[in-house]
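Before a colleague's protein record goes any further, I have to sign it off. What it holds is a sequence and that sequence's fold in token form. Would you go through it and say whether the fold makes sense for this chain? The record follows directly below this note.
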Amino acid sequence: MLSQNMTDKIIDYIMSHGGDFAEVFAEHTRRNQLAMTGGNMSEALAGIESGVGIRIFSGDQCAYFYTEDEREENLFRLLKENWKAGEPVRPDWEKLSADQKIYDSTTEYFQSASVKDKMKLMEKCDKAGLAYSSQISQMYLKYLDMDQHVQIANSEGCYMEDHRMKTRLSIEAVVRDDQDVQRSYYGPGAMGGYEFLKQINVEECARKVAQNAIRCLGARACPTGRMPVIIANGFGGLFFHEACGHSLEATSVSDNGSEFSGKLGTKVASEKVTLIDDGSIRDGWGSGYIDDEGELTRKNVLIKDGILKNYLVDRLNGKKLGLSANGSSRRESYRFAPVARMSNTYIAPGSDDVEKMIASVDRGIYVKSINAGSVNSITGEFNFNTGETFLIEHGEITVPVHSATLIGTGGDILQKVEQVGKDYELGQGFCYAGSGAIYIGAGQPTVKVSEMTVGGDEIC
């Protein structure tokens, strides 16, 4: 990591040679990952990443470059090679006093847990899942942790440090009979150290995953066409993360590259929809105390009762939009320039009863989990592949069906949200975009969409 004297030198050089804004981002990160297959350790990885990224605004231009070599002579060589500095036009630029803050809430560092301790935890899951039923043929376990220390300084008086720790255990069960093979998955994670895994019953989690996999055995062909879709609570919220969340990031909005560009204050969704992104949730998988521009994270209400209230805004795109940055700038590491990205994004709880919601559907599907999806933020067109999926017939969930493809546009689907339950839950995952792979939370209560295009494999 850099001394404050060094970050001051870099910023002074940039600002006195024609820069309008200067930022230094330094990082030191440790990562560990273990995987277990069939009760045997199949992977053990550990790594350290350390480096510095420098960002400069000059007029309408933005320059970003990075290095692993933190020596002073290398940093200034990098500056001079990658940025065409002007003459010292502002040698006496007014430097703002730095407000230095350091954040760290971790109570037990995961380094205090040995590899043997982590393996024992995974073995517990493996045995619990296999013991649930003889139909469980395989358990896959993955443990990961990250210890990231970042330092952010800029020409507007920011000098911040954040210590971010993430811990996660992923559990997958495979079940098979003579005619079918099914899988189920659960991956609890949090911002915190090894203490997080002591707060949950990992064996019960493994049994639940095994039970869910068995429920999907004998899945039938999935129907095709326009029909009601009910999306379960928890990580089903990934649907809205993809369907409309990316289109609300300033990186899309600022160049009129989003279906929501220029629509602040207008009705873009059903009045049932309140969409929130909150990077300040305590222990949240997508949380941090500051974002990657040094702004305090916060709760940003994006859509309130169907009305578009806000975007996720980073510093650069905020300048284009005339909006202030709102703690939403993120990056995978020092190798990436920060941009507006989601953190923990969710549909706020409503007041509808889930049983009545299901009872209102004559024929449709119930989606327990979403595997993956993609969206065109300009048009809002999306498609998603479902995981555990069930048929709803005459107001009841009846049989499992094969995974389906959900097709539509974000703006259309938001208007068709008909009911929102009270059973809010937040799940954990990763998001891959322009500034790299980042930790995200996605959540919701159970939600009913009145009509959506479902691509199934049923032959009519």
Remarks:
- The chain has two domains: 4-215, 225-455.
- The two ends are 63 Å apart (CA to CA).
- The chain has ten helices and 25 strands.
- The chain has a mean pLDDT of 92.
